[in-house]
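User: I'm new to structure prediction. If I give you an amino acid sequence, what do you actually give back? Let's try with this one:
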Amino acid sequence: YIRESPSGLLGRSPRMRELIEMVNTVAPTEATVLITGESGTGKERVARAIQEASARRGKAFVTVNCAALNESLLESELFGHEKGAFTGADKRRDGRFLQADGGTLFIDEVGDVPLPMQTKLLRVLQEKCFMRVGGIREIRSDFRLVAATNRDLEGMARTGQFRGDLLYRLQGITIVIPPLRERRDEIPGLARQAVTAFCLRNDLPEKALAEPVLDMLMEYPWPGNVRELIHALERACLAAGEGDLILPGHLPTQMRVAVARHRVSRGREQSPE
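Assistant: Good question. You get back a string of structure tokens that encode the predicted 3D arrangement of the chain. For your 273 residues, that looks like this:
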């Protein structure tokens, strides 16, 4: 059971408290979980929180990012392969399904799984058994599946880009993570957490955020969500060096430009004709 936001980086607004309660409700079950949300919202952090609040905590948490692999590599990554199964396969290799035995398998960007692979993935989810590439013996694995996507799988299913029956299997429980722009009240707290954590990890003096910096953080649209916020503040900490205050000039240039343009645009909208 978790009481705080996963990894302390998802905020404590009412919407995020609802998410935490959802995690605490589904974690003790063996239900398949589909986590949806824009890139950078913290989907893997939620998946890890599910693992830590479940009976499988302490067991393997195995991840695979489908967007980073082509079809043949993804098949080998998930199923493993036998020696000699293809050129370069000089020894047997266990895949992610078997590595996750007893624990949790986190499939990120599941919307990028090619259609032929979707059929094979569906079979594994239904039967919890598979064969290595080039193998003839079926292997069983007791894993819990948590998948994530930033894509509209239901829309993809309607256009034939994603199997409807696989989507049904993945949607045992669906958790939606709202984008950062829809929970701006969390930005100051998240920003301070990110700065404190980075300074501690890198033996830098503790730093505060100047009020103009907080104003800019609140105005910026954060297309990259929490991940972008963390990276921006890590760069700001480095730019501030040994100083104890993060100033606007320490923020990334593209962010300062975006906020300046937004302010100019807003000023034109508010100016009398």
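You can read the tokens as a compact description of the fold. Here is one thing that stands out. Residues 32 and 172 are 5 Å apart (CA to CA).
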